[in-house]
Each structure stands twice: as structure tokens, then as C-alpha cells.
Amino acid sequence: MNQRLQNKVALVTGAGQGVGRAISLELAQDGAAVIVNDLFSERCDEVAQLIIENGGRAIAAPADITNMDQVETMVQNAEKTFGYINVLVNNAGIVPERREKGGKTPRFLEMPITDWSKVIDLNLYGSLYCSKSVLPRMVEHKDGKIINIISEAGRVGEANLAVYSAAKGAIAAFGKALAKEHGRDCITVNSVALGAVSHEGIINGPLHPDATPENNEVLKRMLNFYPLAKGLGRVSRPEDISGLIAFLASDRSLFITGQTIGISGGFTMI
């Protein structure tokens, strides 16, 4: 364990599995105290316990981040344990529900209006609520890092993901505006745009960890859209992402703010 982040207290949302889990483990490995948030308490507990068993500092913080009261309570309780939060990773997110037949997400005109709020509330409002809750202490101490995990769909738009693209694009714009408002407070705000990610939380399909181009035709076709994926024979994994988050959380990135950085194997190059 190194100590690059020994003075950091990090809140990671959606940290119970996948990308959030890997980010939490890496931040803890670098010395940060980690507040492990997820909607499901058993996931929080498992990740927090794993960090502690490996000599790190962590607490489980189950909460629904679409509820401002729950977010504020979570932050207040965490601060009693570790002090003020100076790293926020807005990772929690959700894509539209897939249709029963065909396994595809719906086009905008086919997506029920009631489903819009599910996507917007977690992806966008969850990030706004968490940022609102931690910013006052960051401003007070003139010390803060906010890192938004978005999608390449938020930068270029993606068919059958219109509302999701809108929410992720809004987070990126929100981050840029926040960076302009709080640069004077020594707070940096950046976004990291992901493409397809394979992780343990995916039950089946082309992004299941056991899927390969040889045993999954959908994955084989997907690789054609990712220049690096064609060479590596796979899409991204959580560990491809967590290292950049640790860098952005550290003082090594002190003069980087208002940026959107892609980790998608070249899916987009903008």
C-alpha cells in the first residue's frame, strides 16, 4: 500500500460492484479513507470489509442517492468517522431497461415516460445531490476533487440511449460549470467517459466476464467499434479505469479541471 492519498477521504457512489468497487479498492490501496456507497447494504459491507482486511480504512454507507435527505445523512455520518470529504466520485448510474424481446434498449419514442425519471434521477440528480452535500466543506477547506463517471454516449450521443445520453451529457456540462465556479476554492472537477465495461455484476451477455469473441458473436461485433479492443480481444474492465480515478483524486492532478477524459479504447477520439 502506498500513501499517495493518505490525506484523502473519498466518497464513491455505486461502489458495491463493477467500476465503483474497483475505484474504492484502488483509492484505499493508495491510502485514502473510503466511504463505500451503494443502494444495497450487503454490497457496501462486502467492499468495505475487503478494504479493511487488506489494511485500509473504509466504512459502508448504504443510501439511495436520489433522495437528498439520505445523501445528507450519509455525508454527515461519514464525516463523524473520517472528517470532511475531499474526494467525491459520482459513479452510480443506470441505463434504460432492455425490452423483453431482442434485448435492446428502446428508442426514445418507445421509452415510457415513467422510465425517464429512473435514468435521470440516478445519473443526474444523484450526482447533483452528492456534489451539493460535500461542496460546503470542500470550499471551507479549499481542498476538493470531484470526479464524475459518465459515458461516451454523453459526449457523442448513442442510438437507443437518448435519455441516458442526455443525463450523462448534462453531468459533463455540470462538471465544467462547477469547475469554473470553484477553481477559486482550489476544487477540481473532471469527468471520465466510459465505453462498454465488462464486470462481475453483469449476469450474462457480451459484457459478462467469461464472454470472449470466440464464444459470443455480439461481443465479436462490438470489438469493431473499439480500436484497442480489436487488438486486446476484449472491452474495458474496471481495473482499466480505477488507475485514472486515483490519479485525478491525487495532488498529481492539481492543475487539471473542467476536462472530460475518455477511457473507451478509442471508441471516440474527441
From TrEMBL:
Gene3D superfamilies: NAD(P)-binding Rossmann-like Domain (3.40.50.720)
InterPro entries per record: NAD(P)-bd_dom_sf (IPR036291), Sc_DH/Rdtase_CS (IPR020904), SDR_fam (IPR002347)
Xref: SUPFAM superfamilies: NAD(P)-binding Rossmann-fold domains
Pfam families the UniProt entry points to: adh_short
Similarity field: Belongs to the short-chain dehydrogenases/reductases (SDR) family.
Full protein name: SDR family NAD(P)-dependent oxidoreductase
Source organism per UniProt: Alcaligenes endophyticus
